[in-house]
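Mods, move this if it's the wrong board.
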Amino acid sequence: MDAPFIGIGEPGSFGWRVFHERHPVMIERLCAAHPFGPDVREALTALLEESTRGVVEPLDDDAPDHDVWAAWTEGQLGRPWAEMSFLWAESYFFRKLLGATGYFAPGPWRGVDPFAPMKRAELGSDGTAETLAALDSLPQLADADRDTAVVQAAVWGNQADLAFQLSTDASGTTSGLVSGSAEEFWSLFGQAGQVHLVADNAAGELSADLVLIDRLLTTGRAEAVVLHVKPNPYYVSDAIPNDVIEVLHQLVGSAGEASAIGHRVQDALRDGRIAVRAHPFFCAPREFSDMPDDLRAEFSSAAVTIFKGDLNYRRLVGDRHWEPTRPFADAVSHFPSPLAALRVLKSEAVVGLSADTVSSLDEGGEAWRTQGSHALVQTRS
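Not the wrong board. Structure tokens:
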């Protein structure tokens, strides 16, 4: 039996705070980063008003994805946003934001990623530079320790302590990991086949994903890798095809091991061992249990599928108020191939934890599900 979906209507809840506190700050930053005219700024203000106090209005653009979004919004139009599920509402909010900024319309903002300045700032930050420099420690590690370090990097993505993790003893226990291990992750990989990786964020996290992909290929655990990204800008920092190019250029232009990894990834892209795909469903307000037949068929052929990040986890297990002790295998029984989820906890949905772990975390008195201080590695063979 399904648990209640996580919503945005209860004042003070995590979803409510995202819409009433985070989104206004994000819109303010977008307007500071771009010289948007009055029409765009007014449209963004109207979107904030609609999504916090109004009802769900239809899209007012004729973008190529208009018809598919019409199907995804069927039955929701005219209802108060406060009645929507968190997953559905947030997805629709970001689609409407693209419309408001003129992403699909003729004019100067057509095709311009409104979140690019934020991604670019992170990619060029001192923290990212330190992380890429820390990759120089990888060749000095024993194989098992290098495996662990690469998984830790992929789990924590753009977290500030990633460089420290890579440059210290990788065999130790990762602080904040509430489920699973690098050893559990690598146990999924037997005979080499095609591995799929569903990316989350751009910049530093995507850099770590490319390091993991390189490790999969160079150790022979994968004969080919399919990297799935979003087709359009989404959720502020989510990776789109252009971000793959930006991150690859950053790696190739770096020194040491980062450059070596970048050149190997570049060569693998050129010879077809890495493919980049951007299916429209990755921007859908739906869970992966509802994915279309063509995407399901693609995942069915995978030796292993790796899901990165919080949003993909929510869509994988269902963005609902599950008991955190619900077995992970039960929650992902709908998925057609072996899989691994690598996730920093930044929202409420979570499954697959032991009762002792949940009790210990709850007793700590902190918002462990949402503050980004804990992470997990979960697998199903």
